[in-house]
Design a protein that fits this description.
The complex is a heterodimer of chains A (115) and B (113). Chain A is mainly beta. Chain A has no helices and 13 strands. Chain A is globular. In chain A, 36% of the residues are buried. Chain B is mainly β. Chain B contains no helices and nine strands. In chain B, the strands form two sheets. A five-stranded mixed beta sheet of chain B has the order 1-9-8-3-4, with no helix packed on it. In chain B, a hairpin with a 6-residue loop joins strand 3 and strand 4. Chain B starts with 8 loop residues before the first strand and ends with a strand. The chains are: A mainly beta (115), B mainly beta (113). The interface between A and B is medium-sized, with 28 and 26 residues.
């Protein structure tokens, strides 16, 4: 049972480069999320999606783009990498349940360094 | 969005109970109270959630005040593995932000041997 899988686990980017962080889940969850976590800080929501074709901004969306063409995949795109985007990125998924959401499952994270 | 307030840090001894408080005085009637924890160098993991009644599962218990303006996560016997950051989160079951999951700063729990 794979759960939520993120790739890559580590990446070093140069300023101005672009990349896509991949996230896939095999639990048929409607909801998917992207977070960033800076050292010693809490998680900040970047974007989330409540289903294929539907995305919405979170707390810190600037500098990122997302798409959700399938239930399983929710890639996060960085177009022009900046040092301020150095962080650990977490993807998560969950599904509706009993008026709220059920437990969210998180990937192992992608550690991104922009130099 | 309704906010939560948690102490920055707490300490406990191994095998003793731990009560982690959370204040949410602006909670709405459709907000569920969720708790997650994040072990060092890992992604967060779900602990428990509830609406009005106290809840128990294999990991912890959740005690919710009658007015729902506060809640307490109870770890019955702390182990060293319970050392983590604990997040109390309100999730709106209605309205336009349905399904949105945002984290605050959380409480850093230190467990002493």
């Amino acid at each position: 049972n794979a759960g939520v899988t993120q790739t890559p686990k580590f990446r070093i980017l140069k300023i101005g480069q672009s990349m896509t962080l991949q996230c896939t889940q095999d639990m048929n969850h409607n909801y998917m999320y992207w977070y960033r976590q800076d050292p010693g800080m809490g998680l900040k929501l970047i974007y989330y999606s409540v289903g294929a074709g539907i995305t919405d901004k979170g707390e810190v969306p600037n500098g990122y783009n997302v798409s959700r063409s399938t239930t399983e995949d929710f890639p996060l795109r960085l177009e022009l990498a900046a040092p301020s985007q150095t962080s650990v990125y977490f993807c998560a998924s969950s599904r509706p349940g009993a008026g709220s959401i059920t437990e969210a499952f998180f990937g192992q994270g992608t550690r991104l360094t922009v130099v | 969005d309704a906010k939560t307030t948690q102490p920055n840090s707490m300490e406990s001894n191994e095998e003793e109970p731990v009560h982690l408080p959370c204040n949410h005085s602006t909670i709405s009637g459709t907000d569920y109270i969720h708790w997650y924890r994040q072990l060092p160098s890992q992604g967060p993991e779900y602990v428990i959630h509830g609406l009005t009644s106290n809840v128990n599962n294999r990991m912890a218990s959740l005690a919710i005040a009658e007015d729902r303006k506060s809640s307490t996560l109870i770890l019955h016997r702390a182990t060293l593995r319970d050392a983590a950051v604990y997040y109390c989160i309100l999730i709106d079951a209605g309205g336009t932000s349905y399904g949105k999951l945002t984290f605050g700063q959380g409480t850093i729990l230190t467990v002493h041997p």
